[in-house]
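Two proteins, back to back. First:
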Amino acid sequence: MAQQYHFDPATYRDMVIAEVPAYEDLQNEVARASADTATTRLLDLGAGTGETSLRVLARHPHADLTALDESAAMLARAQARLPAAHPHVSRLQDPLPTGPFDLVVSALAVHHLDGPGKADLFIRIAAVLRPGGRFVLGDVVIPDDPRDARTPVNTDHDKPSGVPEQLDWLHAAGFRAAITWQRHDLVVLTADLL
């Protein structure tokens, strides 16, 4: 797998908003999809500067947050915004922090993995979730209609998959999964561990 591109924490938000016009809506929908899950332990995969964590914690203010990202600089920015968080510098391909977690979220990170990498990650997420726990994935996907491809994709670093195959991988990992929001090539999937 190619080396991941490391974003600049100081410019990340402006860059992602310029490239992903529905970024704010995606983040809000990830948080909304987490709302009806009783959450005391939360894991944010690809936490970056903490945008997703902040929104999810607004719905679960007493949750204990573990923020995982491969960039120590991005996590340092997140830590400044979320001082009670437990930063975890790690790649998505590495072993996940020890669970059980009630809720795992990820926004705009999993598409950096190829298909087998996503399927493996979903299995590992299931292993750190409590029974009945929830995984919420907000990400760029390959849309059914090519005209809906709106988010710039760099083939060296971005490996989006279609929704049907991601739902299949989630089901194979032991989740009941569904689309809860979609706009063009952005989607939020909610997966409850059976």
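And the second protein:
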Amino acid sequence: MAVIIKYVVERNGEEKMTFTSKAEADAYDKMLDMADALFAVIEKSDLIENEEKREELALFLAENREDVLDALGAKRKATPKKKATKPEVVEDAA
């Protein structure tokens, strides 16, 4: 018998997604938090009357966070780049 650990993301008593990694579950939960915050902003506008469409838009924007930040001109944190390693050169002893 195998033991399987599952991480479940739940919102308002509804199971949204199940993950095998805590990090993935946390990232998804964070994305849903962003979607909730974006929904509140979108809701202030009278441009989209349909609540379902507002939810879809908020989720889309949260899922595409990096592109949205680029479009808004937000500065990203510099990510450390891997140092390029030189290939090992083996000289022929002959």
